[in-house]
Amino acid sequence: MQAHRPAVFAAVLGLTRAASAVGDFWVQSDFCARVKGASDDHPVTYVDPATEEMTTHGTADGRKACLEHCLTYAATQAIVAGLGARALGIRVHPAAAAAALAVSFSTHYAADRRVPAKGLLEKIATKTGRGGFYKLADFGMNGAFHLDSAWHHGWETFAAVIATIGAKPR
What we know:
Layout: H1 5-27, H2 30-35, E1 44-47, E2 54-57, H3 59-87, E3 90-91, H4 94-112, H5 120-127, H6 131-135, H7 143-163, E4 168-169
Antiparallel strand pairs: 1-2, 3-4
Helix pairs in contact: 1-3, 1-7, 3-4, 4-7
């Protein structure tokens, strides 16, 4: 199996990456996308697109929306990677898969709770001299989005390494 490990890793990484994009952009609800960074200090007003009802949300709702998003995100990854691995003839060890999903879920939550001036990514960007890029929202760019994507891609790669530990051909 050692000789096949790079191919298995590449396949699992590709499946994870595809599932991540689907989970973030197609599965995530509009409500979660808008409210997941809400806090009592920085409440978010949400306008329901169907009813046009306006509601204001603080910390508890922000945490709940982020949790819901990360659960659907991880579930999407589990389904896509599981079905894809099966179709490709890869048997992923259940404990490795669970550990990889736990890494993906927890790092995704940490990044997506973007409370202004308190969120993990903003803090890291500021401490590493990238605070200006994080706040960039001009010239067709959104620095926070790009740093968020890079964060997720890095952790997804790490999770794919974990997921392939003990993987075997079917």
